[in-house]
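Quick one: L-aspartate oxidase from Paenibacillus sambharensis, structure tokens please.
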Amino acid sequence: MIPRYLVDVELSQLPVIDKDVIVIGAGIAGLFTAIKASEHNSVLMITKKSLLDSNTRYAQGGIAAVISDEDSPAYHRQDTLIAGAGLCAHDAVDVLVHEGPDGVADLIQMGTQFDQEDGAYALTKEGAHSQRRILHANGDATGYEIVRALSEKTKDHDNIEVWDDHFVIDLITHDGECCGALVQKPDGSRVYVRGKATVLCSGGAGQLYRYTTNPDVATGDGIAMAYRAGANIQDVEFIQFHPTALCYPGAPRFLISEAVRGEGAVLRNIKGERFMERYHEQLELAPRDVVARAIVSEMEITKSTFVYIDITHESADLVKHRFPTIYEFCLNYGLDLTTDWIPVAPAAHYMMGGVKTDLNGETSIKRLFACGEVSSTGVHGANRLASNSLSEAIVFGRRIVHRINNLEPFCAEVPSTLESPVRMASSIQAVVEKRLKLQKIMVRYSGLRRDGNGLSKGLDELKRQLPIFQTLLTKREQYEFANLLTCALLTTQAALSREESRGAHYREDFPERDDLLWRKHTVLHREHGVTEERINDV
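--- reply ---
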């Protein structure tokens, strides 16, 4: 059993800091929500590294919103529902497609500079989108531009205080309400931060896997601490693997954006053969899960560790202009996007599920909100449509702030001691080894393709790591491992319970989608275990 709190603390002995709103995380969700909330509240933003370290920074493709006259919310809705494979919450998708353009307008007003052509915003098309609706910045550096603009904007707000290099250990709850968070400072001392609202914007859990496009900080902290606090965790079996991450000795798993295929790139196996026609009529622009599994099949057939992405038939000027970041990055490793086929392989990219919220971003715990990849709003269903993630963060960030502004005053009593089991000392070295072992278990048994036997075996191996919760944890690496282990257990349990294949969840022992039995969400709760929630809107 995972304990309620990771550490033993006498709260009454700790310094207390009071703020209106506590924002945990500094990607687009955290930055945007903090700026919006600061108009009427004092805000504390807590990030375990710095404002520039988040998944948003690495988002290349762009942000999806209905801007063009040829496009409509109805088209955007349809594309999102098709990608989500029957698991999207229709009301959440409606919110996204109708409120997305206003969110983009907010980003522009906050200083984000999207690319323009002939005086209008340059819109591109990505896999599974029926229309051109992706705004991008500096070609393929959209996330970086958004983070740059919003980070600068936070400095203009006296109401926002930023704590870099601070780690949120746990959420503090009392009588079903979130009262704030227990935070560890860079010097190892701890402080209790109290607030009328706490917003988790802590991103995803890509570090569950050995190969991921996510930065080192993506260790599922928000999902794990929300689970310990008693929130509902939904649909975490759906992990999107990006089909095309750079796979080259010495290079990180750098994203080769969907947009490269959108602009005409083709996939070839190591024999040089184009292969996507054997797997899907949309070829290279098929949904991500289909492309990722096709690549793995080709790698197995040809006994290779990669396939190639080839855009050499397009003009060099177009490639350099449209994908300057990818072009430069590959060039640093001796690969020229304009003349070379680039070796790629799938890598863990995005978690569709997360902390279950309502349409105002509020979780099953009062005053606790979740926004961005850490949340499960129901927008993405079983498979996220490309570039909907950044839109979701701003649309629901706006709604969260509206809800916070209407919260009744806050009067928190809290337990003086955080009860937890007897603990023994633990070593950092052992944690580094344990993390690597966990990642290998997840790749092997809970990755792109799964089956019941493997998932059961993976679950047993993960459970052997549970004694970490009986040890004395004091360092960030230890907390992160405890959080990764929590997320790994939740993901594997959810994947084992879903006996079908849908979206990003593929079971070789149940290869068909089963709408009759499985058109429902998997919900995990610390005390109630795994439950299912049917979808009513057919």
